[in-house]
Amino acid sequence: MLPVRGRDGRAARAARILGTRTAWTPVGDGEFFCPGCGGDRNYQRLTGRRRLTLLGVPVLPRGATGPVVECAACRHHFGTEVLDHPTTRRFSAMLRDAVHTVALAVLAAGGTCSRPALETAAAAVRAAGFADCTEDQLAALVEALAADTGRFFEQPCGAGLTIELHEALDPLAPHLAPAGRESLLLQAARIALADGPYTPAERDALATVGAALTICADDVTRLLAAARTPS
């Protein structure tokens, strides 16, 4: 191979003489979803201090850098914003809890006495991860909610319903693709339709679900109409 000449050669020689080295210090660890690996991995949170090097020897401080997140598997560094993304395990739990909360809200808005609605809701909750969920369990939960809250679910989108749904859906919505958010709303709509057309209370509950999932009002209307059309 021919030696490197000209400007590139001088730059390469200079880089060997003068450079920058970062000394990393661990300040925390945990589990995260690694964008590089595409799965859940352990990580270390690192802060660093840069130093100017002369012939590979650190000589002058160049200030702090980081913090960064280092994957224990691929060793790649990422910005700390990657920790905002839930792990696969956490995401599954969030989705499971969201489906359960939405099903209870729709049932409480008008379907808890209907066996078809209970069956549809229980099937959705089981598919989301609560494998042992039964229709009777859901009915008992809705009755307990009604007794505890004075049946606020049956009123036009009371504050209690809004709070419950937003607590379950707000953390989840940013991590769902648009198709995933629409699928969750359609699932709720099918529960409401299992025993007949939407009641006003059910429509109001479904509108609250759509808002919590950051689906615009026009798209909520479109999806509720689509759910009524047999596939």
UniProtKB/TrEMBL annotation:
<dbReference type="InterPro" id="IPR029024">
    <property type="entry name" value="TerB-like"/>
</dbReference>
<dbReference type="InterPro" id="IPR007791">
    <property type="entry name" value="DjlA_N"/>
</dbReference>
<protein>
    <submittedName>
        <fullName>TerB family tellurite resistance protein</fullName>
    </submittedName>
</protein>
<feature type="domain" description="Co-chaperone DjlA N-terminal">
    <location>
        <begin position="98"/>
        <end position="222"/>
    </location>
</feature>
<dbReference type="Pfam" id="PF05099">
    <property type="entry name" value="TerB"/>
</dbReference>
